[in-house]
Design a protein that fits this description.
Helices cover 45% and strands 14% of the residues. By secondary structure, it is an alpha/beta fold. Helix 19 links the parallel strand 13 and strand 14.
Length: 520
């Protein structure tokens, strides 16, 4: 059960939500018949328990076949909803059939690094995309299939796909002779797919016990404390956001910390539209309680008892809303996925938005295509400097947040650098600060940046290096692709009137250290 601390009782506005969710009432989110019809085709995640019951045997049998085939690692090629849940499973589960790596970056250096991993051990490639047309996934598939064709007999035997029925990826898999194709129910949206094939197949390969996971996932036709708690959680988040407490700060404990990035995508992309939105602050180093701004709400999930109770007490004494519960067993991860999906749906109801669409995501994709097809069609971007960033920060308003949008390889070293920088920025400004790697964030928080409240101070950080990796069948390589993605999103943010600066470095080492050292 959740402890609701400093949260007004009865303020959720969600008394009838559990019953209406169980009967899949699309009118919870819209009175428009056309929108309701679209929502009807996005509620399949509510039957997660039934899906798992019907498919656990197939998933387990598949993993057994992969073990018998001698694979030692798997490479998941996917973005957003296709990659984040598998990443969580791989991080929190025990030893699995394979070591799972996630390829969700188009940075040439990262693609080269992942390719080197394939040269060391037999690798199963998992090509994962609901639409089957995701640009990054298509480029990565082309690269790794060409690598397999050059180094392996029967390259298609080393690939599987997870996609929707009738997608171009299903046809490509048949053409290339993929080992297996998993067709997901079409009524499950990407960011709600953690308990479908998109999450469970790579998760099972990485060590998840799907049968044990299922024990904690409730059926929607049955009342359960988890379901009721999740509805109230979402109702509280929506009501708090409507009153200005829209910076959801996650502290999930060491065991479940990787879940934060998945929650960030789910909530940011689902609620960040029509000028509303809940801004998830994930992975932030813990600060003194009196350093947090008054727009925060804290979700604390403690699994190992390592949490500093004095710190929590200080938050409570200062009046910060706190939502707190304990999770002890890793097998309860499935329940946490389900909890947050239900909560996000309930929060959308309170905020008066449709949490199952992403109306602003396509703009950056279109801008990227325009840059690639007509490189001279968008004005060349001249990177800015520390003085421009200082002016941006000086113009901050109450309720703002900072977002570092880094089109860099997502290495441990870069994560450490940016984590240190975000702490400096928060301590200087008092504002929440988020860190996101591009192009991955375009499929998650990118919706919030453009469709949510005008509270973001955006720092687009790009890398201008000579490193490149070709993309078979394309007239450009990964260097041009990631450059176009950064340039395209920068263009869209400016067209939307968002406050943004562009910083650039020539290398990830000394150059990046010098750049971050020069700015506040």
């Amino acid at each position: 059960m959740i402890d609701f601390i400093n949260v007004e009782p009865g303020g959720s506005g969600c008394a009838d939500v559990p019953a209406r969710l169980r009967r899949r009432d699309a009118a919870l989110w819209s009175s428009d018949p056309d929108v309701q019809h679209a929502i009807d085709n996005r509620l399949g995640w509510l039957d997660a328990a039934g899906f798992m019951d019907r498919n656990t045997h197939r998933i387990v049998a598949f993993v057994d076949r992969i073990k018998a085939a001698g694979y030692h690692q798997a490479m998941l090629l996917g973005m957003g909803g296709s990659s984040l849940a598998p990443e969580v499973y791989a991080s929190v589960s025990g030893p699995g059939a394979v070591d799972l790596a996630v390829a969700d970056s188009t940075a040439p250096g990262h693609v080269r690094h992942l390719t080197s991993l394939c040269e060391r051990a037999p690798t199963l490639f998992i090509v994962s995309s609901k639409s089957g047309t995701t640009a990054e996934t298509s480029a990565l598939e082309a690269h790794f299939f060409e690598w397999a064709r050059a180094h392996l007999d029967n390259p298609g035997e080393h690939f599987i796909t997870i996609t929707d029925p009738g997608s171009p990826l299903q046809a490509l898999a048949a053409q290339r002779g993929y080992r297996e194709t998993f067709l997901n129910p079409v009524d499950i949206g990407g960011r709600y797919s953690a308990l479908s094939f998109f999450g469970l197949v790579p998760g099972a390969l990485a060590g998840v016990d799907v049968a044990a996971l299922r024990r904690y996932v409730p059926a929607t036709e049955n009342e359960s404390p988890l379901f009721s708690d999740a509805c109230r959680l979402g109702g509280c988040l929506g009501a708090l956001a409507a009153r200005g407490r829209n910076k959801l700060t996650l502290h999930l404990g060491a065991d479940f910390a990787p879940l934060a990035a998945w929650i960030e995508q789910l909530i940011d992309e689902s609620t960040g539209k029509n000028g509303a939105g809940i801004v998830v602050v994930a992975g932030e180093p813990r600060l003194a309680a009196d350093h947090y701004s008054k727009d925060r709400v804290f979700a604390i999930m403690d699994g190992t008892g390592e949490l500093d109770e004095a710190w929590v007490g200080d938050l409570e004494a200062l009046g910060h809303p706190i939502l707190r519960w304990r999770v002890a067993e890793p097998d309860r991860l499935g329940a946490e996925f389900y909890r947050w999906e239900v909560a996000t749906a309930a929060a959308g109801h309170v905020l008066g938005i449709n949490p199952f669409d992403e109306p602003d995501v396509n703009d950056s994709k279109a801008a990227t295509r325009a840059v690639l097809e007509h490189p001279g069609g968008i004005r060349a971007e001249i990177p800015q400097g520390p003085a421009d960033l200082s002016r941006l920060l000086q113009g901050a308003r109450a309720g703002d947040y900072i977002a570092i949008l880094a089109f860099l390889p997502p290495t441990a070293a870069n994560r450490k650098r940016l984590s240190s920088w975000r702490t400096r920025l928060t301590r200087r400004t008092g504002l929440p600060c988020c860190v996101a790697f591009g192009p991955r964030y375009l499929h998650s928080s990118g919706q919030l940046h453009k469709g949510g409240p005008d509270q973001g101070l955006f720092i687009v950080l790009t890398l201008d290096s000579n490193e490149d990796v070709s993309i078979p069948g394309r007239p450009y390589g990964f260097k041009a692709l990631i450059a176009a993605q950064g340039r395209g999103d920068l263009q869209v943010l400016r067209e939307r009137g968002r406050r943004v600066v562009h910083l650039e470095t020539k290398d990830e080492g000394a150059g990046l250290d010098a750049l971050l050292g020069d700015v506040p």
